[in-house]
Hints:
Layout: E1 3-4, H1 20-27, H2 29-36, E2 48-49, H3 67-89, H4 99-106, H5 113-130, H6 142-152, H7 155-168, E3 173-180, E4 183-190, E5 201-207, H8 214-217, H9 221-231, H10 235-244
Parallel strand pairs: 1-2
Antiparallel strand pairs: 3-4, 3-5
Helix pairs in contact: 3-5, 4-5, 7-9
Bound molecules: manganese (II) ion (MN).
Amino acid sequence: MIKRNIDMKANSSNAKGMNRRNFIASSGGAMLILAAGTSPSILKGAEILTIPSLPYPENALEPIISAKTVSVHYGKHHKGYLDNLNKLISGTEFADMTLELIIQKTSGQTDKAAIFNNAAQTWNHTFYWRSMNPNGGGEPPKSLLEKIESSFGSFDECKKQIVSAATTLFGSGWVWLVVDGKVLKVVKTSNAEVPFVSGMKPLLTMDVWEHAYYLDYQNRRADFIAATLDKLINWNFAVKNFEATM
Ligand code: MN
């Protein structure tokens, strides 16, 4: 069975670059075929989406986020969305699409809500893990800092808006730093919603579903967000995503 890798790019328009040939070339597909002892002809339509490994060990975000939280969040929630998605798209028109294309095609369609929710949650979490780094936090690199200051007035104001968005989001969802046209903005989305279906380009995200913080912070969502901003947020990832939009 050939596994399709998900190449996380903030800019969803890059999805077109992830064609089937790229997946096969980068996944060691030929070795998998031999190991499984199957004929290539029966592999058609049998490819499944996969998620990348965590970019750090499960305990690397401690003491801000415990290994237990990361283990359950990645191993049960994130993988659960992926497994659901693969089941839902098996044998459908979506089975051969990239993750980004599945999200674009099902967004806003009530009869495709289950596929959209599981696809978007699969994408959001892969983006989320990369939005943090054990040595993160602090100030963004100068190029991004200047853009933040011109968009928000100050870096402190940007952080304030992130915490405010997280605490005012009712229920479950995500807080994002995005590029919207020429400016940076903080936006919040409910449940599985992703900003790129509205044309905004995500630079960073923070998961504010309770499963992201409840074991460590219980109801103190603002503390979780503030600590993540101070110690974990991966500004280098944001810079990379920002540069990709230019
Ligand atoms: Mn989550």
